[in-house]
Amino acid sequence: AGIGKRVATDLARRNARTILACRDRERGQAAVEEIRAATGNAAVVLRLLDTGSLASVRAFAGAVLREEPRLDVLVNNAGVTGLPFAITSEGLEQTFATNYLGPFLLTNLLLG
């Protein structure tokens, strides 16, 4: 939703293979279908990613590095605010993990 969806739509309009990295499969797939319909670009795909989970970040990055011949642009746009204090299963504060640690790790893993 929001800025991320707009950026993905613009990239798809430019005929880019566009990977939507979403936490929620249903909402992500709906966005993929909407972007495909709006742009005519069938190369818009969904991959699940929860930046609040470093295990999820590592799995996502590994899959991208294995499956994609190249990566030209990375847009780190996901974030949360106003969540109650919570600790992830990896022992990290949820908001900090989601907004900072996950995107930092993802960027570094994809740099190769």
TrEMBL record:
Keywords: Oxidoreductase. Coiled coil: none annotated. Signal peptide: none annotated. The keyword Oxidoreductase applies. One of its GO terms (molecular function) is oxidoreductase activity. Belongs to the short-chain dehydrogenases/reductases (SDR) family. This is RDH11 dehydrogenase. The lineage of its organism: Eukaryota, Metazoa, Chordata, Craniata, Vertebrata. The gene is Rdh11.
